[in-house]
Amino acid sequence: MTTNDPATTASPDSHEAAPRSRRALLAAAAGSVAGLLAARLGAPDSASAAAGDPLILGNTSNSAGIANTTLSTYSSGTALQVVQIGPGTGLRGVAKGLDAIAGFFRSDAASFGGGAAVRAAGQKNHGVVATASDAQADAVRAVHTGSGTAVRATAPAGVAMAAVGQTGLTAEATGTAATGVSGLASGAGGTGVEGVAPWVSGETTGVHGEVASPQGVGVRGVSAAGGGIGPGVLGTTNSPIGIGVRAEATAPTGNSAALFAVNASTGGIGVYGRATATTGNTFGVFGETSSSPDPAISAGVWGISNATTGYGGTGVYGQTLSTDAASGVLGWAFASTGTAAGVTGMTQSGNGTGVFGYAPSSPGIGVLGQGSGNGYGVYSSGPAKVDGNLEVTGTIGSGAAGFTVDHPLDPANRYLSHSSVESSDMKNIYDGVVTLDGAGEATVTLPDWFEALNRDVRYQLTPIGAYAPVFVRAKVKSGRFTIAGGKAGQEVSWQVTGIRKDAWADAHRIPVEKVKTGAAKGRYLHPVEHGQTAAKGIRTPAAAKRAIPKAPKRPASPA
Fold first, then answer.
1. Domain ranges (residues) in the chain
2. Are 471 and 484 in contact (CB under 8 A)?
3. Which partner for 322 in 26, 124, 326, 393 could form a disulfide, CB atoms 3.0-4.6 Å apart?
4. Burial 492-509 (b: 16+ CB within 10 A, else e)
């Protein structure tokens, strides 16, 4: 026979049940909660909350297995908001798999708008902080599969994007006309791209641009500022061997441009270089090339003026305001042998000028050439012409000397040329006509500097009109000499020569005969005239045959 427990068989409305203690009631309630919690953990289902009620997640760990959770809302508000009041982390995602992703966000808007897959606002803190510890990993990687922009950073004031590190920012664009980094500064005084390399040691680079395309551009800067100073590209470095902006084009062939600067202003400058140091060897713009073309030309700096008309178009312009030995344009050939040229000027126009020098004030110098040792300051391997006065402070050596003028009888149609009188000595010639006095004599007065300038004086006398035994009665003394032996009133033509004895002439006597030595031995100044070929001629290194350089093909504009 079975006896029922009164606690289980009593009616809920019965008041005859035995009274229970408070401790027994608390124990029973705790047991009920434990049973419910055990049941929930044994068979978990999706967390849910009634409409209008909050979803509360406690301090616990849950494993969903392969199940997924989707949170959807159709409101204009925020689907999920996590607020962190303390110094901890509001939301953290951890990916432990090889190709796992800690967090993935996607905007599925059907058309372009103002939405975003991810938007971060840091207020007074950082908007996004991304770190990576492995050398092969990227702290931030952005990929745009279309033709848009992978990363765009804007800042109404301050810096839109700042990257710090051994390599602060690496941007790679693999498309045909894609851009690795594009910087735009629309405000006055703004900077499109600024690279700063604070020097600690070694060779630092503010901005490094590299392109492997035959027609690519390493760094391209465009300044659209309407006022103020808005650099397209600004790079600064405080390293003594650092580089503010470095652009490198690595294509082995083609007409690539490491740095391409375009200025459409009527008074603008394509590339402007300024060296602000007041001492030392500074350079506003420095160009270097290592190419060895043949027969084309390789240029450290190449300038083109495309104007086909007008005055003042200049391919390369150099200017200096220094009153000392400064240079507007300096060309220097460092090679110790060969036929390198510091400055080469060429023109294909019949009336063009290869190199033009202009000195608007006296005693300015349009073109200055300075030679030392056996070198020549100025050398012409062909005809040279001076349209004006020629002043030579040294000796003149030539195959022949003379003058050419418009023919006095037919100046419009003919020339008249004369050869100069030459001598093995530095000889001066003076002549004149004198009339004899009643005694058949005459005294000729010479310049007061005659005896200071001349030695070994020679005399020539010729009577005019009739024969007369004229002779020199007294030689030059105190600037005078006396002629005698003629008839009263007779004219006598006289000529006096002397050899220079001034200080410069005594120090620089012209050797009459000289033995050929070295490369000149067995060769000729004028080989053709001696029945030899032109190859037997004596030519200085500067006059050696040089391939006429051809201008390089102009690089195609990347614009």
1. 208-220+234-266, 425-509
2. yes
3. 326
4. bebebbbbeeeeeeeeee
pLDDT in tens, the chain (559 residues): 444 444 344 444 444 444 455 555 555 555 555 554 444 444 444 455 555 555 555 555 666 667 667 777 777 777 787 888 888 887 888 888 888 887 888 877 777 777 787 888 877 788 888 888 887 788 888 887 777 777 877 777 667 777 766 666 777 777 666 777 777 766 666 677 777 766 666 666 777 777 676 666 677 776 665 555 566 677 777 777 677 777 777 777 766 777 777 777 777 777 778 878 878 777 778 877 777 766 566 777 777 777 777 776 777 888 878 777 777 777 777 777 776 777 777 777 777 788 888 887 777 788 888 877 777 788 877 788 888 888 888 888 888 888 888 999 999 999 888 888 889 999 999 999 999 999 999 999 999 999 999 999 999 999 999 999 999 999 999 999 999 999 999 999 999 999 999 999 999 998 899 999 988 899 998 899 999 998 898 875 554 555 555 655 555 554 4
Two tokens, residue 319:
């200017």
User: CATH classification of 425-509, choosing from 1.10.238.10, 2.60.40.3940, 3.40.109.10, 3.40.50.460?
Assistant: 2.60.40.3940
- Whole-angstrom CA distances from 453 to 448, 482, 501 are 10, 20, 5
CA 258 to chain centre: 10
Supply the DSSP symbol for 398.
-
